[in-house]
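Task: complex structure prediction.
Instruction: return structure tokens for all chains below.
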Amino acid sequence: MGGTPPLSPLAPAAFPKLPAIKGARFATAQAGVKYKGRDDVMLVHLPAGTTMAGVFTRSATRSACVLDCQEKIGAVSDLPAAILVNSGNSNAFTGKNGVESVERITSAVADELGLPQERVFTSSTGVIGQPLPDDRIRAKLSELHGALSEDGMEAAARAIMTTDTFPKGSETKVDIDGQFVHIAGIAKGSGMIAPDMATMLVYIFTDAVVDQPVLQDMVSALNESTFNCITVDSDTSTSDTMLVAATNTSGIRVTESSVGFMEGLRTVMLDLAHQVVRDGEGATKFVSVHVTGAANDADAKTHALSIANSPLVKTAIAGEDPNWGRIVMAVGKSGAAADRDTLTIHFGDILVAENGWVSPEYTEEAGATYMKNDAIDIHVDIGLGGGAATVWTCDLTHGYISINADYRS
Amino acid sequence: MGGTPPLSPLAPAAFPKLPAIKGARFATAQAGVKYKGRDDVMLVHLPAGTTMAGVFTRSATRSACVLDCQEKIGAVSDLPAAILVNSGNSNAFTGKNGVESVERITSAVADELGLPQERVFTSSTGVIGQPLPDDRIRAKLSELHGALSEDGMEAAARAIMTTDTFPKGSETKVDIDGQFVHIAGIAKGSGMIAPDMATMLVYIFTDAVVDQPVLQDMVSALNESTFNCITVDSDTSTSDTMLVAATNTSGIRVTESSVGFMEGLRTVMLDLAHQVVRDGEGATKFVSVHVTGAANDADAKTHALSIANSPLVKTAIAGEDPNWGRIVMAVGKSGAAADRDTLTIHFGDILVAENGWVSPEYTEEAGATYMKNDAIDIHVDIGLGGGAATVWTCDLTHGYISINADYRS
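Output:
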């Protein structure tokens, strides 16, 4: 890496105070996989009875640890579980050797913690295509085991960072018939971010009691409107992983009809997703793209992503240029149904264009002033139907080029 | 515009010497549509008997002049024809006013030159969404008429430039049964370049005798493997237009079985397409992406475009970083069939990866040395079938951000 990028100007003021999730214990260590002088490996121990759910990248070249997690995730077990994550090396496109690394690590974690290998989930994030020095990780397992603590979630958030400029955490509590369950999670990711799902690792923990199929359905459904609606650069990682663990330690049961729990989980997922965008490589603006009036929801998302991924739209925003013509261009190229003469475009509350042309009320000065905000809301009504979607992205700046033109060297 | 970008380092050494195409006469003028102190409008007069063919952007928000050309292009006429093009303003997303501008311009050109309005084709290129001051163009028609000359094609290539850093021209001659027909063309375009087709205007002229349906079929077919295989930033213009005019003045007939003519036309189209990539905004590397071994040709093109459009691949090339892991990522995310363990990747003649991992012969030093070249060849064999495709792109640099973050301001 070519030095550490400066803190994103869109970073939250502080890392949130995360509650302990009873039974979920964390530890971190310096394994020296690639980075020196910082923690680069985290271990989570989850108690007997923990329910695991997850979603993963759909990349055709996904990494060995993703494939391993996917094989294991649906199984129901009452035994303890563990999650081990390293940063600095993604163990992706490392062939048979990569598969063997995952086997060696999961076997060693199982031995160290005295739980079955089928309950050990791993992730690796960092450079693609270099052999993972898994011996350095395995050498730290005893130290990690000894350090496990319910208070270690923030340190875990830091240990999994790569090009991230700030650690990402979020939490909420949900009232279930007068009793509270807690949800807390951490994430990493700042580049190679796009649907399916994002170059991201996300780990969320709750003390609720949830059956595996119920938790899996919730996570899969919520993923579509949260992590699958953010994009930094349209590139998709080979390693994207989100694991959600319900430790069942609160004794409070959640079912598929627990709307409050679903909302709480959505809040944490969306907050973490937004934090990833706020840490988009080189980002200086947080951009919400709302599309309404499309022929259907799928068309709306196609339009929204076409706008959010357009380099010309993203560079205009970087330049604080209210260049709405590029939004028209992005709608036009998306492939979804659109009619030039029924488009309506707003920047925040400012009506910019309607009926196929700039609005008579619109002034370039108003647009330019609006574009100086850190948070930009673009609203496009297609004028054809009832389809709607919202996606979130950031601008495309010199910072993105600087970070990515010399990453790895 | 925020100043003139410096000449692309990938520019050809000189503008080619274009042959006169008998009967095709050119003129340029300073209409002051937006730019001052340079020609910004070109007029072409084509003799009676000229055959016109064309391909156009498929954007759903295409401009009024594109729609007007599309209506006119298929008609067969023995009367003279004209092409009028302005730079600085695209007359796109200008509503009813834009349609009226096209009507006024084509009517005025028809009156000035004494030919039917149905034979007047126009293009406009530049900023979207601002009213076209067509009176400034119409005021120059008499001057343009008086200046028409068979020698004016190079000046025409300069008059249609926007963010281009060099004018683009190409020519060839084709032996048809011992006699030569000539093909010569000009193009503009450097950003908003992507299939369907590219932010481009292309005008090609030949003195061959060709029937309209034959010429149209040739142009449509050749477009797929030339202009529709280049990409700078994946953004698609609302104004893309290619017009091909056969003046019939050589008396030499070309039919659908004239392989030599097809090849000649392909040569000129591909050369112009490559020049557009070489002038890609901020480009410092000319990149050819060859994909073979895909399940079919469509999959091969999907993979090739996924690689060519990936910001992470393009920034790695800008940084002269042989980061082949990002190529694996781009193949994985494309949506077309791929198998991690059957991929083979070459940089030029250097075998980089095979069988799901880096090749034992590959060295980082060899890759890094190769990446210092101005022209980079990436070859990916998917290892599944016989599908193949080649696309061309450039790297993504600070120059792209600089040009696009302050264009218009």
